[in-house]
Write a structure and sequence with these properties.
nine-stranded mixed β-sheet; alpha+beta; three-stranded antiparallel β-sheet
């Protein structure tokens, strides 16, 4: 993670404020573990990025900036309508939140009377990967606002998902390329998750 920001970035979707987060350094370190392992979505330009760095501008502890690799045009995907991006109620959390080791996926339910369920992240990722051939594959993305905090102490990452079937203006070939790109990133995360 770089501590200086030499490239100006006018895309406000890629500037994530840490103002609502108490433990900013801890949160920055946590999200950096997922650098280029989860795709990042920008609604204002209808793009997502698979190849990027996470930067903290010098002297600014109040934000992080996502910088897409300007030389990796094939790692930027266009025409991704915001309507196709859905909230999931899934959060990646450090195991310490629930007195365990490793990373967990916390499943929260719209019905607030149903208790949130923590699942070890690795088998949860495998389940997502196994959805690839289904009619509705689970394709996770991060967006501005997805870096959050539990109990003003522990960082977590909320997941959005892309419903590729709703990208009706794109060709089947383009839809498949998008699905493959996100699945490839998820496969990398699955392989590395024990080391994060």
């Amino acid at each position: 993670m770089s501590t200086s920001l030499s490239t100006s970035n006018s895309n406000k979707d890629l500037e994530w404020s840490l103002d609502s987060i108490q433990q900013r350094e801890v949160a920055s370190e946590f999200v950096s573990k997922f650098e280029s392992k989860l795709c990042v979505y920008s609604p204002s330009v209808e793009q997502f990025y698979t190849n990027y760095t996470i930067n903290i501008p010098s002297g600014e502890s109040g934000k992080i900036v996502i910088l897409p690799n300007p030389y990796a045009f094939h790692d930027t995907f266009n025409g991704i309508k915001e309507d196709a991006i859905k909230d999931t109620g899934l959060h990646i959390i450090p195991g310490e939140t629930i007195q365990k080791k490793g990373l967990y996926l916390l499943v929260t339910y719209k019905n607030s009377s149903k208790k949130a369920t923590p699942l070890p992240l690795k088998p949860a990722l495998l389940k997502m990967l196994n959805s690839e051939k289904s009619a509705d594959p689970f394709l996770p993305l991060l967006a501005k606002g997805d870096l959050r905090e539990f109990d003003q102490k522990v960082p977590c990452l909320h997941l959005h998902r892309l419903k590729v079937s709703e990208l009706t203006e794109l060709s089947t070939f383009e839809q498949n390329s998008i699905k493959t790109a996100i699945m490839d990133k998820m496969a990398e995360l699955y392989k590395d998750v024990d080391n994060l």
